[in-house]
Design goal:
The chain is α/β, with parallel strands linked by helices. It has 2 domains: 68 residues, Winged helix-like DNA-binding domain superfamily/Winged helix DNA-binding domain (Arc Repressor Mutant, subunit A), CATH 1.10.10; 196 residues, 3-Layer(aba) Sandwich (Rossmann fold), CATH 3.40.50. Helices cover 34% and strands 27% of the residues. The chain contains 8 helices and 13 strands. A 6-stranded mixed beta sheet has the order 7-6-10-11-12-13, with helices on both faces. Helix 1 packs across helix 3. The longest helix has 17 residues. It is globular, with a radius of gyration of 21 Å. 33% of the residues are buried. The mean pLDDT is 94.
């Protein structure tokens, strides 16, 4: 087998199995090559990924060592993606009567959802969650992509308990924007008690839903390692939650003037990658 063929196979396997440990013996047996040859191939893959900001190939030392792929993006790549998303979401035709911003086409596009998931995986790269948690419905594609990048299961909080999921824990919470009392529920068997979780959602205004998610996680004695949203409004400044990260900030949406002002979050300028 030629080196180019081995590298193509190695790249495919690593990129489609993020954070999965592969031993040198695995690739040596699969590709019928010496471990020293595989090691040289992996060095080429690692250097190429690093040069083009496509992720990191991490070497694991020791007798049971090997490699794993981390889908981490470079700072320049993240900035470019967020600028592109900001421009798309600032299009006038995205204003919906009532002062809402249409984002569904971006959120449910596999390409963009995958990129957003990798951005979250990069921003929260220091944590090791057992689960990624979201609430239905629009947060699901973003959370699924994030869960894939972390190689952990996705847990979906429902608006109400489903009979097909067995017994559930339900709580009432107050929507921060409408001040209405709503319900969210999570099946007891969705995740183990005391798990470490990362919360992901699509939009935050006052933070009522996010506050409800935190309270529901407390019922499971879960440790919330981080919270990420795609878009957060700058007003109200005082949210019902702290310690969240918004990839984009919606500064203004003027339905009358047909004007949208949305920019990458200020955290980006302090992020070192």
């Amino acid at each position: 087998m030629r080196r180019s063929e081995r590298i193509a196979i190695i790249t495919k396997i690593l990129s489609t199995n993020p954070r999965t440990h592969f031993s040198l013996n695995y690739f040596a047996g699969l590709l019928d090559a010496a471990k020293s040859t595989i090691s040289e191939d992996l060095t080429l893959v690692r250097d190429t990924f690093q040069e083009y900001g496509l992720g990191q190939v991490v070497t694991i030392p020791g007798a049971a060592g090997g490699v794993k792929f981390l889908p981490l993006l470079s700072l320049s790549k993240i900035a470019s993606l967020l600028e592109e998303m900001s421009e798309r979401l600032a299009e006038q035709e995205r204003i919906i009567p009532g002062g809402y911003l249409y984002m569904t086409d971006l959120i449910f596009n596999p390409k963009h959802a995958g990129e957003i998931g990798e951005i979250f995986a990069t921003v929260f790269k220091e944590i090791e969650p057992d689960y990624v948690v979201t609430i239905e419905t629009k947060g699901i594609p973003l959370a699924m992509s994030t869960a894939r990048a972390f190689n952990v299961p996705l847990v979906i909080i429902r608006d109400d308990s489903k009979v097909t999921e067995g017994s559930a824990v339900s709580i009432n919470y107050v929507s921060g924007s409408t001040r209405r009392i709503r319900t969210m529920a999570l099946a007891r068997r969705s995740m183990a008690t005391g798990s470490k979780v990362l919360l992901i959602d699509d939009f935050m205004k006052a933070g009522g839903t996010a506050r409800g998610m935190l309270e529901l996680m407390a019922e499971f004695k879960a440790e919330v390692l981080g919270m990420g949203v795609l878009v957060s409004t700058t007003e109200p400044k005082e949210k019902l939650v702290d310690n969240y990260l918004a990839l984009l900030e919606l500064e203004a949406l003027d339905e009358k003037e047909k004007r949208i002002s949305i920019k990458p979050g200020k955290w980006l300028y302090n992020f070192t990658g």
